[in-house]
Description:
Layout: E1 5-10, H1 20-35, E2 39-46, E3 61-64, E4 67-74, E5 80-81, E6 86-87, H2 91-104, E7 108-111, H3 120-129, E8 134-137, H4 166-172, H5 178-192, E9 197-200, H6 203-212, E10 219-221, E11 243-249, H7 256-268, H8 270-287, E12 312-318, H9 325-337, E13 342-346, H10 353-358, E14 362-365, H11 375-382, E15 387-390, H12 393-398, E16 405-408, H13 413-425, H14 429-435, H15 443-464
Parallel strand pairs: 1-2, 1-7, 2-4, 7-8, 8-9, 9-10, 11-12, 11-14, 12-13, 14-15, 15-16
Antiparallel strand pairs: 3-4, 5-6
Helix pairs in contact: 1-15, 2-3, 4-5, 7-8, 7-9, 7-13, 8-13
Amino acid sequence: MSKPRVLYICHNHPSVRPGGAEAYALELYHGMRARGEFEPVFLAKGGPPHSTARAHPGTVFGLCDGDPNQYFVYTDGYEYDQLYGTMTDKVFCTKNMHEFLLAFRPDVVHFQHTFFLGYDVIRQVRNSLGDVPIIYTLHEYLPICHRQGQMVRTVNDEELCTRETPQRCHECFPHVSPQVFFMRKRFIQSHLSLVDEFLAPSHFLRGRFIEWGIPEDKIRVEEYGRQPVTPLSPSTKPRPRNRFGFFGQLNPYKGIDLLLKAMRLLAEGRETVADFADAQTHAASRNGVQTARRAKPAAPVTSTSRGDAGPHLWVHGANLDIQLAGFRNEIRSLLEATRQNVTFAGRYTHDELPSLMNNIDWVIVPSTWWENSPLVIQEAFGYGKPIICSDIGGMAEKVAHGRNGLHFRVRDAADLARRIDEAATTPGLWDDLRRGIPPVYQMESHTDAVMDLYRELLKRKAALR
Length: 465
């Protein structure tokens, strides 16, 4: 008897463009293959804008990494409407995806993303495969927010967005009418209504999508599972815990510019930090963001608090090359200004992560948007590293201030600088927070939960036939 087949559909492959959702999706594919109960197939977008590969003659599909169960779908020649999240040429679904689905005939389809593929693929699955169970993991807020799913407004000093309406979306994008945004929402919801179950890796994200319109009984919280790691034992030799690391995408929403500004303040001295704090606090008061677990501001940095060994930051990240020129130039300028206390290490592979984590004491997650469940938090905890993060959204949910990490006021470079200085100079703080790090949710447990969901949906579908 053949194994039931599960098809994973993702917007990208981590071998092409590294990213958290992509990395998790491929880990789940490998984790499911290792369990042996289901036969997984992984389909990821290839071609522009993420690669220079061309469509194969006669087909838009090609093998990936020599694995007979991993495929690229090349979208060369097809235009993608980012507002509605759809392919303008419907032949992409009605012919290409239809033929692929019929060739593999999966028993379960699990969407990891539809960006650059289109929400239409969900409807094509239903049209091609009938009542096959459809699961959709929500990694950010793209169905809700046209601004790359960040829920960060283009107006009012780029304030964080707490709710979506056609009028508010129009204010962010004046060239798009409220009526069009109304139709956008209805279009996306009509496709997502075909999904049997949604998975949300955080309670915060689940709440946002329930407010937006997904029925509460169709979306459950299921944290990302991670492959087990073996943390290296920390050195027993007493030393300042003053080594900090950033791991992630080098884009404006991940807060790398904010972090480098904080490091510049620390390099320039405490008086600059104090002066800058007043301006930052005033800006934060205009933000209007309310959080459930707002951390108290860090204690002021004094002229004697740091000692001889100042904090040093290692920046590990990729994809600066695809950012807008203004942002690229700002980051390069900040890196030049912080050469004395920042090392730019650049792109890294997953295999390098153990040694890179061993080189630092703290991991900083300075994102300027809500986030969902950043994989770097689990990675840091897996290697026994406390975290300094923004005090909002999925970050504040995953990191407990004063227990296994520290919060700083979102978008406040001065408060982040003070937290970094506090972390580097407070005796015993690193050890106390390290002891509070919770166990990381393992991929084996996660695949058990996901397989339970597959079995449940397959049983439910069978009962209705």
